[in-house]
């Protein structure tokens, strides 16, 4: 069982249809919008990959907004803003200054302090190795969108010195590395408080999936009892406190909070993702099952209304999971795969058509292709997202993928042919 908060589905859908009858989800992939669509059937999907667009400018003028739009990471360049303006849509994105402050690995430390939540022992480093920074350490660049490339784990002074040389000229965050289970708490800041939704076990740096120690590899929803006693409730308290501080800075809408749950039930805040996260796809399936409006809808209501109705629900955990499959070599993608429900047949993908994440059966996975033939890819760059009806690893500090999950990863990489450029 788990405890989540949200907007009651019936009332929320009525409010949403009234204030956002023309609503578009915009991203390179429809996976997140798809998990909300059964409750928001008028939601439109607009596919566009702004990561591959450069030299964009906001139009000097455009049509008056006829509707509203939500994008996965609108702070990542001008792509989503330019697209929405040209389409005559109002992009519901959080205040850019508040987003930048929260996303920054260093400026977010002050926000955590104001929220009264624990963080690892941390040093802000410009050049020299700080006194006391010894043992197992995590070194991070300030940016929050480096997909793991901006995080290093070091255990010796020599390794630390090497990282400082490699990132010379940058101000870095150096933190004591602690033991514990990485957990992501999904929330939404409204004008009257913070809605705290589902908890998920964050899968990070798994060798079969990424060459980077700190890279996000996936998530799996967890019930309260899978964490040490009292830790789940403390995760929700910490998320609410951080969300309320985000509100003080002018932030509204969806966000994710990454924390570490220690063996003694302490909850240590690590970083803020002031935007939608990939795990929200799983979270929305859980919200639907609990009779709550999906997070995408809650984000829209929080952006448009002075208040939203919120209730707390005790419900069964769906135990859904997902893995990010990345390229294991550099090259050009020569063959692609079709998004949809798949099964494995003798280690190969067998397509079964479209499907709903919440309706997956044992032995099935919902696959979303995030790279396509002709794309140039590098090791660690995302190729596809795989979603499962059950957990893919034990809930632990250093999880290992289950055998079936490894088979799925191998099958996806076999189907997605990467050749030398």
From TrEMBL:
Keywords tagged on the record: ATP-binding, Nucleotide-binding
Pfam families tied to this protein: ATP-grasp_3 (PF02655)
Domain ATP-grasp, chain residue ranges per copy: 109-309
Keyword Nucleotide-binding included in the entry's annotation: yes
Protein name: ATP-grasp domain-containing protein
Organism: Lentzea kristufekii
């Amino acid at each position: 069982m788990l405890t989540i908060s949200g907007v009651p589905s019936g009332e929320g859908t009525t409010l949403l249809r009234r204030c956002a009858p023309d609503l578009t989800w915009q991203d390179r992939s429809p996976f997140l919008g798809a998990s909300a669509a059964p409750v928001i059937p008028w939601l439109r999907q607009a596919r566009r990959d702004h990561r591959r667009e450069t030299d964009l400018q906001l139009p000097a003028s455009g049509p008056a907004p006829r509707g509203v739009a939500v994008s996965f990471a609108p702070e990542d360049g001008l792509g989503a803003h330019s697209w929405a303006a040209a389409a005559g849509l109002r992009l519901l994105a959080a205040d850019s200054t508040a987003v930048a402050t929260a996303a920054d690995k260093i400026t977010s430390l002050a926000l955590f302090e104001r929220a009264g939540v624990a963080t690892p022992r941390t040093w802000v480093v410009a050049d020299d190795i700080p006194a006391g920074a010894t043992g197992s350490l995590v070194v991070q660049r300030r940016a929050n969108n480096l997909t793991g490339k901006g995080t290093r784990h070091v255990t010796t002074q020599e390794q630390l010195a090497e990282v400082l040389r490699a990132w010379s000229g940058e101000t870095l965050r150096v933190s004591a590395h602690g033991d514990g289970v990485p957990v992501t708490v999904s929330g939404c800041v409204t004008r009257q408080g913070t809605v705290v939704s589902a908890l998920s076990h964050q899968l990070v740096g798994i060798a079969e999936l990424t060459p980077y120690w700190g890279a996000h590899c996936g998530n799996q929803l967890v019930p309260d009892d899978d964490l040490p006693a009292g830790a789940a409730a403390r995760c929700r308290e910490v998320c609410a406190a951080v969300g309320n501080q985000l509100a003080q800075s002018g932030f509204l809408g969806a966000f994710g909070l990454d924390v570490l749950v220690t063996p003694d039930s302490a909850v240590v805040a690590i970083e803020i993702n002031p935007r939608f996260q990939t795990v929200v796809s799983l979270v929305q399936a859980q919200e639907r099952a609990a009779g709550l409006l999906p997070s995408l809808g809650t984000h829209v209501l929080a952006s448009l209304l002075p208040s939203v109705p919120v209730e707390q629900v005790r419900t069964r955990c769906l135990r859904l999971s997902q893995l990010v499959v990345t390229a294991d070599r550099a090259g050009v993608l020569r063959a692609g795969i079709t998004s949809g429900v798949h099964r494995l047949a003798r280690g190969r993908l067998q397509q079964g058509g479209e499907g709903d994440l919440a309706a997956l059966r044992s032995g099935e996975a919902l696959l979303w292709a995030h790279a396509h033939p002709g794309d140039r890819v590098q090791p660690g760059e995302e190729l596809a997202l795989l979603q499962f009806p059950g957990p893919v690893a034990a809930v632990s500090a250093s999880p290992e993928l289950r055998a079936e999950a490894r088979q799925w990863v191998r099958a996806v990489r076999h189907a997605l042919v990467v050749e030398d450029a």
